[in-house]
Amino acid sequence: MWRDNLRGIYYIALKDMKTYYLKPPAISWGIVFPLAWILAFYLRNPQDFRELVPGLIAMTVLFSTTAVEAVVINLELRVGSLERLLLAPISLSAVLLGKVLGGVIFGFMMTTIVTLSSVLVFELQVNTLYLVSILVLSLFAFASLGALLCVLVKEVFEAQTLLNLPRFLMIFLCGVVYPVSALPPALKHFAYVLPLTYTVDGVQKSLASVQSGNIILDVFVLIAFTLAFIFPAVKLLAKKFA
Amino acid sequence: MRPLGQTIEMKKDGANVISVSGLTKYYDGLAAVDGIDFEVKEGEVFGFLGPNGAGKTTTIRMLTGLSQPSAGTAQVLGHDIRTGITLAKGKFGVVPEVSNLYDELTALENLVFMAQLYGVPSNARAKRTEELLKTFGLFEKKEARFSTLSRGMKRALTIAAALLHKPRLLFLDEPTVGLDAVNARSLRSLVQKLNYQGVTIFLTTHYLEEADLLCDRIAILVRGKIVALDTPDNLKQMVKSEPACEVRFAPMPEGVISEFEKQRGIHRVESSGDNMRLYGENMPSLTEAIFKYGSQKGLEIASISSVKPSLEDAFIQLSGMDLEVMLAEKGGR
Fold first, then answer.
1. From the CA of B116, how many Å to the nearest CA of chain A?
2. Closest CA relative to residue A17, chosen from A86, A82, A109
3. Residue B306 — very low, low, confident or very high, per pLDDT cuts 50/70/90?
4. Using the beta-carbon criterion (under 8 Å), do B89 and A89 form an inter-chain contact?
5. Is residue A2 within 8 angstroms of chain B, CB to CB?
């Protein structure tokens, strides 16, 4: 059975890449939006841009994964093709994990481009193991967050709207723009219950030239967030088809 | 292909592929399916006939694992639908009411994806997809995107996708809705062919002639309950109907209807196209009146036949439904 599920996850993700990656909502929210933000920050202050790189990489992870989740889940919920996947001899969890993997792969491609460009342009020193670990775990965490929110609604635009609430909240509170340490105490506490804080922190520590430190806490917190998002997402999807 | 109406001997003693007991589904406190019981035997074409909202699709959704029953049990191909449906899914195919393959993929890519999902071995995929594309007359369209295919082609491809893993049981939910007469006819032939090859068919429809033509047994479902379940012929025999006879004189004289209406033993007369339909106490009195009238007026009887109750009569009597309303709801032919 687990083999059938693994096969299902793989082929669903592959099909989603072929089918949905060039859909307008995936391009606008997953590619254009993060690139526009990066450009805006660069033009505003080119001298200090280097300091913003970890936050902007984290933002790219957040937007690219969640944007694709809205497309791969909600387009199929709307036209009924998700039911076709649920009729296959694989579990409902495998179908959702296939959808999450679709978001992860898209996010990985986008994040790789942004990260490599940053590293090359700013000649950043990288702890590759740290960086890959943080980025991969973050991709899964935010794709799972996307899946959780997307199964709540039917239309792609509803999903993108719903996703904007945590997206913008995290952009302003999790160290993308302002350091978490500079936030007022109440907001600082709030920032520590948001997953993007740990992505930003982990990426900062992976780019040795920016900040050094251990990423163990970030790794465990991102794993915990992934699980905390994916289990209820499976439950909600199952409830939708109850 | 099996000639229409011919039955296969193996059907009579087939094992149950579906056993349903007390199956119930509530939506917002209302029973969409209300404690239904039935069995489907291996090799038969089993029809679920009923109007919109009768519970046909809800039943299919429960039997295929897309929805959980509120109460009751069901076994599909030996697997309990609550605990073993994932295993059963590998042995049955489903053609939903809406052809919901992927618009962005070509006909071939859609079939290949379904083959991958159902675990068709990679060395058999190319052969199987080609075989099905040819069977369904879609081989020339294999590189065409699903979105560009005609409605009939989309339906055919959706059925092909459900057959990739060679299922023993095929669920067809309103397979001919929205198809023109030619496509609907060719699809019915296909269903018969599949059944002839040994595939058990579970069919929902609201087209009476389709059910009559295809099904070995029919369950009539009304407001979530099965009100009758039998062979089409037995369902027709359940109907209490007036003896009736259809006749055509050559030529058909003026005022013939009113003349017959005055005759003793004839209850009413209706015009039926070129023919005339007479209802009376019994068949002998009807035929006697017709022949007597013909000889008195020197008219040739071009055709004469007794009118047996149709499945439509059976459906209307057993369900208490208005047939025209039912067909109008679905944009019927």
1. 7
2. A109
3. confident
4. yes
5. no
Residue with tokens 């495998």: A94
Pick B113's closest partner by Cβ from A15, A87, A90.
Answer: A15
d(CA B194, CA B93): 12
Nearest alpha carbon to residue A75 among B109, B150, B103, B96 = B103
Q: Nearest Cβ partner of A19 from B105, B114, B119?
A: B105
Q: Is residue B154 a contact partner of residue B144, using CB atoms and an 8 Å limit?
A: no
A77 strand-pairing partners: none
Structure letter (DSSP) for residue B140: G
* CB–CB contact A20 B100 (8 Å): no
Q: What distance in Å separates the CA atoms of residue A66 and residue A63, rounded to the nearest whole number?
A: 5
Amino acid, single-letter form, for residue B79: H
CB-count exposure of residue B204 (10 Å: 0-12, 13-18, 19+): buried
pLDDT per residue as tens digits for the range B12-38: 457 899 999 999 999 988 999 999 999
CB pairs under 8 A between A and B: 62
Q: Are strands B30-41 and B79-80 parallel, antiparallel or unpaired?
A: unpaired
What number of H helices and E strands is found in chain A? 11, 0
- Please write the tens of the pLDDT for every residue from B39-74: 999 999 999 988 878 899 999 999 999 999 999 999
Residues B82-103: tens digit of each pLDDT: 998 999 999 999 999 888 899 9
Q: What is the ipTM of this complex?
A: 0.88
Rounded Cα gap, residues B191 and B202, in angstroms: 10
CB contact under 8 A, A83 and B87: no
Alpha-helical regions (H) of chain B: 56-63, 85-89, 107-117, 122-135, 151-163, 181-196, 208-214, 232-237, 256-261, 283-297, 311-319, 323-329
pTM greater than 0.95: no
- For A187-239, give the DSSP string: HHHHHTTSHHHHHHHHHHHHBTTT-----HHHHHHHHHHHHHHHHHHHHHHHH
**Is B288 in CB contact (< 8 Å) with chain A?**
no
CB-CB neighbours of B65 under 10 Å: 23
Tokens of B143: 């590189």
